[in-house]
Structure formats: C-alpha cells, structure tokens
Design goal:
Rossmann fold, 8 helices, alpha/beta, six-stranded parallel beta sheet, single chain, globular, four-stranded mixed beta sheet, about 40% helix
C-alpha cells in the first residue's frame, strides 16, 4: 500500500473511532482484510444467526466463507427460493453484516439502498450490526459522504447489476427517477440508540465500492 495512504489511515483512525464512541457506537481498526476478519469473528458468538445485505466487503475479507464453514447459522438469501422470506429473516437475526457507501471523519455512516432491506435492518431489527468499512470511504463531512455515495458507490453498483440507469452509462449521479434506480432510500446513521448494537471495523485496505 502507498506509504502516504498508510500514514493517513493511522492518523485518522483514532479520530473516527472517537467520533463513533461519541455516537454510542464501537469502532475498531484493522490494517488488512485478515485482521478485519478476526475482529469480526470475535464479535460473533458461535451458534449465532447471521445474515447481510449486499455487503461485498464481508465477502472480500473472507468473513462469509468463515461463517459458512463455522458453527454459525448463516442465512444466505441467494440460497433461498423465496428471496423476500430470506431478507425478512434479517430483522430477527443475532447479527447483521453491512458496509457503508461512505462515512465521515467524525463517525456518521451514509448508505443508499434500492430495495431498502439493508438500510431498514441497519436501523432496527438485528440484535447486532457489524459494519466493515474501508478507509477509502471516509469523507470530510456528510455532504462529502453523500456525494461519494451517489457518485461513486451508486454508479458502480448499478453497473455491477447491469441496471438501466443514467449513472450506469455516465458513471455519475443524474438524480434519476427511472424504474431501475437503486437510490430509493438515503440513510444517515448519526447515533445508535442502543449501546453495543453497532460495531464499525475500519480497514486500511481498499474494499467494496
């Protein structure tokens, strides 16, 4: 990794973790994917029911494979014929895995969702929510985080799912209202009402979108 990026992450992580603590959330820092996976597994007791939305970061660090191979009840919506039924199980799960489309230096998490199953589970339902957030998603403030979510994460996801949206063609947000839009719900998580529910693992390596 670029030395300047490493220095930036080391100096910024403490500020972010302190910001999360002020918001009744718990923050951790992992230099790489393997360390992030170890931290995540330490937060998930065996026998727990675990599920997620479209969290590419959890896949990239090897967490999903570890959960499937371990003594956990991992609810994989892709293995259900009734996908909606699988997604509804998230609200009663012990642990929900998520990432953020962007976050601020003082610990505010920003997410955009199409079906809204992901943001609704983050807001309420699962007993514990574990975010895996690469440091490349950290922005100065909420405005910057919203711009990143709309102009970086959303177009990439629209392209990934081969959706017919303007951003999938232009690469940037066109504030569309097309049937394929994935920008249906905008969620800003600024505080956790319940202590020990939201845990955020910051990762020094680039992950997700």
């Amino acid at each position: 990794m670029n030395e300047n990026i490493t220095i930036r992450n080391e100096k910024l992580k403490d500020k972010i973790i302190k910001g999360l603590e002020s918001r009744n959330m718990t923050g951790y820092y992992a230099e790489n994917a393997e360390e992030a996976k170890k931290i995540a597994l330490s937060l998930i007791p065996e026998k727990s029911s675990v599920t997620m939305g479209g969290c590419m970061s959890a896949i990239e660090i090897g967490l999903v494979d570890a959960l499937k191979a371990g003594d956990y009840d991992f609810i994989d919506r892709n293995e259900y014929e009734d996908r909606r039924a699988a997604m509804l199980k998230a609200y009663d799960a012990d642990v929900f895995l998520a990432s953020a489309n962007a976050m601020t230096e003082d610990g505010v998490l920003v997410n955009i969702d199409g079906n809204s199953n992901r943001v609704s589970a983050i807001a309420y339902g699962p007993k514990k929510v574990i975010f895996i957030v690469s440091m490349n998603k950290v922005c100065d403030d909420v405005d910057g985080a919203m711009k990143r979510a709309r102009n970086v994460a959303a177009p990439i996801n629209a392209q990934r799912f081969n959706l017919n949206t303007p951003c999938s063609k232009t690469g940037s947000c066109m504030d569309c209202k097309t049937p394929d839009t994935i920008c249906c719900q905008f969620m800003i998580t600024r505080y956790s009402k319940h202590k020990d529910r939201i845990h955020v693992i910051l990762v020094g390596e680039p992950l997700g979108f």
